[in-house]
Design goal:
Elements lengths: L6 E5 L12 H7 L4 E2 L14 H4 L5 H6 L9 H15 L7 E6 L3 H10 L4 E7 L10 H5 L17 H4 L1 E3 L7 H11 L5 H7 L6 E3 H5 L14 E6 L7 H15 L4 E5 L5 H4 L1 H12 L1
Parallel strand pairs: 1-2, 1-3, 3-4, 4-7, 7-8
Antiparallel strand pairs: 5-6
Length: about 280
């Protein structure tokens, strides 16, 4: 692998894990890049589920009220884990890093870019929460420009009560599964969708959604930033994506470089080749 090429660090979104990038990772590695795709604290193999999730037959009542064992995970914990990984990927500062976040992964890559801007070649938001200073993700989720987003229809519990954004990734209800598919994977075929959701976890720590963005112009603002808009996204609407781009540019200064994909929320599954091409271009 060329020592002149940046390394990629790929950060998944809510309810997902490092496995989510399994189509994209080999495309980047084949092009000569080093790639890291971790599962965040509280995600994938690091996630914990409520007992009610595994009970058979499934009972939605206890599932809707049982406190989440995943609620103890904090955004600071996630940020620290990825700062450490970026330092490792930079090989002592000799290799720059392209830091990519999908969806709720944007909540993590922003404070990482604030912490170690000198190690980054670019920060890339793939239809992700790119939050202006002081703004938490929940403020965007509740904004009128996100009114058509489907994700709130999937919530199975009061987040304040259970400490998590809880969805039922093992649902047997065809109507619920259709909303799940439409929200995240509209342009993924049914067989792949059915196999992929088995890798999801049910509880996303609510603290992540309410943590204000710590970015500043002096640090975060020095890193070239890119936003990949997924134009057919029904999880983070196109209007919501544009609102965040405009808000960040106004608050931080400079201009977010925008790239478009005509895809659903999960372009890493439905259009990995097109996504890889954009990322290779960003890498320079």
């Amino acid at each position: 692998m060329s020592s002149n090429k940046p390394a990629f660090v790929l950060i998944h979104g809510a309810w997902h894990a490092g496995h989510s990038w399994h189509k994209l990772v080999p495309l980047l590695r084949e092009a000569g890049y080093k790639v890291h795709a971790p599962s965040l604290p509280g995600a994938g193999k690091n996630a914990q589920s409520p007992d009610a999730f595994d009970q058979q037959p499934f009972d939605p009542m206890p599932f809707s009220t049982e406190p989440s064992p995943n609620a103890v995970v904090t955004q600071d914990e996630r940020t620290a884990a990825i700062v450490d990984l970026v330092r490792q990927a930079s090989e002592g500062g000799t290799r720059k890093v392209v830091l990519v976040g999908h969806s709720m992964g944007g909540v993590t890559i922003s404070p990482v870019a604030e912490a170690v801007p000198e190690l980054l070649h670019a920060v890339v938001y793939l239809t992700a929460f790119m939050l202006a200073p002081g703004l938490p993700a929940i403020a965007v989720i509740q904004d009128a420009k996100m009114a058509q987003a489907l994700v709130p229809q999937l919530f199975m519990a009061d987040p304040e009560q259970v400490g998590a954004l809880r969805i039922n990734v093992a649902s047997g209800d065809p109507a619920y599964l259709q909303v799940l598919k439409s929200a995240f994977y509209e342009d993924v075929d049914d067989a792949e969708f059915g196999a992929f959701i088995k890798s999801l976890h049910c509880d996303e720590p609510v603290s992540v959604a309410v943590t204000p963005s710590p970015v500043t112009a002096a640090k975060f603002g020095t890193v070239p930033r890119h936003y990949i808009r997924c134009l057919e996204d029904r999880a983070i609407t196109a209007d919501g994506q544009n609102m965040m781009i405009e808000s960040m540019d106004s608050a931080i200064g400079g201009k977010t470089m925008v790239h478009d994909l005509k895809s659903s929320h999960s372009a890493f599954l439905s259009q990995p080749e097109a996504l890889a091409e954009i990322l290779r271009g960003i890498s320079g």
